Amino acid sequence: MIQIHDISKLEFHHRQGGQFRWITISTLMLAIGTILHLVSPSVAGITPNWTIATYCVAICLTKPTYRQALGIGLVAALVNVLTSKSGFPYGNLISEPIGALSCAFIVHYFSFLRFRGHSLLPVITGIVSTCLSGGVFVTILKFVMDLPMVVYTAGMLPLVGIIGLLNGIVTPVMYYPALRLFVSRGVLDSLEEQMVISDHSIFDLKPVREGLISLEHISYIYNKQKTPVLNDINLNIHKGDFLVIAGESGSGKSSLCMTLTGAIPHYFGGVMKGMVYVDGKATTQTTISDLACHVGMMLDDYDSQLVAMTVEEEIAFSLENQGVNPKIIKEAITSALDKVGLTEYRTRELSKLSGGQRQRLVIAGVLATNPDILVFDEPTSALDPEGTNAFYQLIHNLNTRYGHTVVIVEHTLEAALPYANRMVLIDHGRILCDSGVETVLRYMYDTHIYVSAIPHVFACQLKLEEMGYNIGKAWLSTELAVQELQKLQ
Ligand SMILES: Nc1ncnc2c1ncn2[C@@H]1O[C@H](COP(=O)(O)OP(=O)(O)OP(=O)(O)O)[C@@H](O)[C@H]1O
């Protein structure tokens, strides 16, 4: 593991999207492999194993996770079972997944192996995966068909070795044209682009400061943009915080939230400098779905997060995708509905819910994975004052009663600030002030930054202070102002 001494210089380059590239490319490659397998002539019973060669090409090109590689191996196995001329083709169901997994292992750990600037992965995976997969296949065949040992050792195993060497030739021969084709169609990055796309798995990344989330020297440029929208952001979010992020439109609030969920850089791409640590783990070394178990986010356009027909189906959706046990899903639905006060709506269709109820449902969906941190981006923009108050009561309850840490981007500060213990003011992608609510509001007033957002009642108190009156604690809401004024009587 490589130690990083100056985290502000560490970059992560990533192109937007691309999560499903491995499916597109492996499907296409396996189709080519199947055709070649069916039509290629064999010389003295020897022919390259086209299926293995093509999935090695796909895995070298897309670097899938082990789970994805297993999927590729199983599809290859099914294709082989259906097209094999062998007496016992079912051994493929074990040998092909092993071949694909070994290929993924080599791609993950040996990507640094190069010869004159060319990756050696296609050659190595072609040989090793073929020998491993073929070796397993013939071993199964030997035992199932009860073949003599001499046939196995003197015939089958050497043949596997020869086909492995053949595949060490055909895999790179297919790899480079495939790379050129996919780059020219915009499906893959060029080799030059890949050189700057960072793989952070080689770095030893640990947060310097403690915190549930720790942002260290974060700067960020969106994909294909030139100007950074976040500039050297340092922020620590602690367990139990109720943090409000405020700033002018376009100051970078939403982008900051996206770094907390890992959507930046994994989904939006671009260039991120510095590091975000969630629960001690660097987000560049974690996937968005793993991060979703720690950080749940509700977008301003929360309706776009709804995908199912009924309330319980909606909450179950993300858990089912993660393969969670149905019994646990049922319990999670009950608990999430209870937390947001929608228990009686469990079987209701989404089209029969009000706007506020749909928003609560999105929150329930987020809560189902029990994340420590809840992030809300302009949650009240579509709510009336009553709905806004009800929303903040709910969030306050989740924060104080259930211990969820809350981060909210909000323009309507009056509603949020009475519940917040902390506020961050952001301007042109920089944090200008990070402190208690009253301190940040006073900073905004004194520096004339985003003054229009200061709650009227607090602005009134500040004006009175300028006139020489000193009226107790901060008037963060009308109720607090009335309380302080009553004390004066
Ligand atoms: N997907 C994107 N690609 C390129 N630039 C983007 C993208 N999303 C946002 N930006 C730019 O990044 C800057 C910060 O935007 P961001 O949405 O983070 O600000 P904001 O403070 O949340 O704004 P608002 O309060 O209006 O929602 C803006 O200049 C915006 O144009």
UniProtKB/TrEMBL annotation:
A Pfam family: ABC_tran
Membrane topology recorded in Swiss-Prot or TrEMBL: Peripheral membrane protein
Subcellular location: Cell membrane
SUPFAM superfamilies, A to Z: P-loop containing nucleoside triphosphate hydrolases (SSF52540)
Family: Belongs to the ABC transporter superfamily.
Keywords, in A-Z order: ATP-binding, Cell membrane, Membrane, Nucleotide-binding, Translocase, Transmembrane, Transmembrane helix, Transport
The name this protein goes by in its record: Energy-coupling factor transport system ATP-binding protein
UniProt xrefs under PANTHER family: ENERGY-COUPLING FACTOR TRANSPORTER ATP-BINDING PROTEIN ECFA1, HEAVY METAL TRANSPORTER
GO molecular function, one term: ATPase-coupled transmembrane transporter activity
Domain ABC transporter: 213-453
Cellular component terms per the entry's GO annotation: ATP-binding cassette (ABC) transporter complex
TM stretches of this protein: 20-39, 69-88, 94-113, 120-144, 150-176
